From TrEMBL:
Transmembrane segments: 20-39, 59-82, 94-110, 116-135, 156-175, 187-208, 248-269, 281-299, 311-329, 335-352, 403-420
Organism superkingdom: Bacteria
Record lineage: Bacteria, Pseudomonadati, Bacteroidota, Cytophagia, Cytophagales
Domain Major facilitator superfamily (MFS) profile: 244-436
UniProt topology in membrane: Multi-pass membrane protein
Main location, first listed in the record: membrane
Localization (cell): Endomembrane system
Pfam families per record: ATG22
Protein's name in the database: MFS transporter
Keywords assigned: Membrane, Transmembrane, Transmembrane helix, Transport
């Protein structure tokens, strides 16, 4: 039964459970600990990883890219098999537990175990990004189209709140170590990694207890893997017959390159270009998370008034202004003001993108397979966006020039969105004979 309040609430708790990984492991405490720990015997940044000498910061970036690329290649096949076998929740659990356990194992990260820690970090990223595919695909299964925007916004808001709460707890342990037996700063950081894994697994039990399993297909000859490939081919064929979905995925790919890159490099920009202190950067990260909550709900309300595409276009226009302002920003206070605006549209554009895609796909039991294409689009855009940002910085010597490149992504994304009709409900247009 769709729109069951308990099921919808349980679904949002997976955002609450997994978002701590993005904040603590990817964005804040782990990168700082990694830079301070992944050093050679002389204390330099050039370390040995699987027989290759590499700078620690480069290794960190490559690990993120490798994890997203691996997930982008793996998820279409996993989702197709899950849809065919009716075991969507089992796959979601497998990725969730892989990621959470890998986070917990980072507790053992010391200078002597850097290789082990990098592998655990890589697996945690795969677990996180892999589970999100199945989590997102549940939205059209548990809610009707008129509820997609609000439920999606509620999920992102839960994620922001949960991650900030655990982050504050972890910072309390790090900054007030004398309250916890005068433990070392390294131990306090490693305890943070352990709490991420426990938090993730613990709160994930709420959605796992309420979310339905998938619908198993009628038995066919052959094994699950072979039939999974056939299932993926069927979904791919259906996508080719639905122009609105293709248009949205192309526009999403372009503007998401800008969105995700800004989110990943905001703290680096503040540190390198504006010489901000670590404490200010942590406050900045928390500000982004908190402001994103009203942003997600605000754009949900806007979409109810003017339709999804127009609401997304408003968000993209604001992103264009953010990039233009970032090129000229000079002071820490200016950057904090800009970060507040980033937070507002960060939650809104992510939430609306997910709900818009949910509205565009047809009524089907193959939701995981459909969302695998959304996930591949998202992950590929992250890799290309961050690569373009770094390459332009390397060639020109300035992050500000890279920011201008992101502005171009948003302009192109805006133009591509213009080709999609803005509606509150799309189901009436999604017969195979769509209006071109």
């Amino acid at each position: 039964m769709k729109n069951d309040p308990r099921t919808l609430t349980a679904w949002t708790f997976y955002d609450w459970a997994n978002s701590v990984h993005s904040l603590v492991i990817v964005s804040s405490i782990f990168p700082v600990y990694f830079s301070a720990t992944a050093l050679n015997e002389a204390g330099g940044p050039m370390i040995d990883f699987l027989g290759v000498s590499i700078k620690n910061s480069v290794l960190f970036s490559y690990t993120v890219s490798a994890a997203f690329l691996f997930t982008a290649l793996l998820s279409p096949f996993c989702t197709a098999i899950a849809d065919y076998s009716g075991r969507k929740k089992a796959f979601m659990k497998a990725f969730c537990y892989t990621g959470a356990v890998s986070c917990s194992l980072l507790y053992f990260f010391t200078k002597e175990t850097t290789t082990f820690a990098v592998i655990c970090f890589w697996l945690s990223l795969i677990g996180w990004s892999g589970s999100i595919v199945f989590y997102n695909s549940y939205l059209p299964d548990i809610a009707t189209e008129d509820r997609f925007d609000r439920v999606s916004a509620r999920g992102f808001s839960m994620g922001y709140i949960g991650s900030v709460l655990l982050m504050i707890l972890n910072l309390l342990v790090i900054l007030k170590r004398d309250w916890f037996g005068n433990i070392s700063e390294g131990m306090a950081s490693r305890l943070a990694f352990l709490t991420v894994g426990l938090w993730w697994i613990g709160f994930a039990q709420i959605p796992f207890s309420r979310l339905p399993d998938g619908t198993k297909k009628a038995p066919k000859e052959g094994n699950y893997l072979l039939n999974g490939f056939k299932e993926l081919r069927i979904v791919w064929t259906e996508l080719q017959e639905r122009p609105l979905i293709k248009r949205f995925l192309v526009s999403f790919f372009v503007y998401n390159m800008g969105v995700q890159t800004v989110m990943y490099v905001a703290t680096i920009f503040g540190s390198d270009e504006l010489k901000m202190e670590g404490q200010s950067l942590i406050i900045l990260i928390l500000l982004l998370q908190l402001v994103a909550i009203p942003g997600a709900y605000g754009f949900s309300r806007l979409s109810e008034r003017i339709g999804n595409t127009y609401a997304l276009m408003v968000a993209v226009v604001i992103w264009i202004g953010i990039c233009a302002a970032a090129y000229f920003v000079q002071t820490e206070s200016q950057f904090f003001g800009l970060a507040a605006v980033v937070g507002l549209v960060m939650g809104g554009i992510q939430s609306l993108s997910r709900s818009t895609y949910s509205k565009l796909i047809p009524a089907t039991t193959d939701t995981a397979s459909y969302f695998s294409f959304y996930d591949v689009t998202e992950k590929t855009s992250i890799v290309i966006g961050t690569l373009a940002y770094g390459l332009i910085e390397q060639l020109t010597g300035s992050m500000r020039n890279s920011v201008l490149a992101l502005l171009v992504f948003f302009v192109i994304g805006f133009v591509l969105l213009w080709r999609i009709p803005s509606q509150k409900i799309y189901s009436t247009r999604l017969a195979k004979a769509e209006v071109l």
